[in-house]
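Mods, move this if it's the wrong board.
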Amino acid sequence: MYTVTIDRDKCEGCGECVENCPASILEMADGKAQVSGDLEDCLGCETCVSVCTTGAVTLTEG
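Not the wrong board. Structure tokens:
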């Protein structure tokens, strides 16, 4: 299982991670990205990490 973490202090609210997540487990709330879906649906593809220009998104396995 993978864990996606979004640092809301670093997130600028561009929405790129939300738009590009193939598992659709992210959403925008209060102008920031957040995990909204079931983490078991995460594919571990790291797309969210790669599109985040501020380094707000991290992905860990375990």
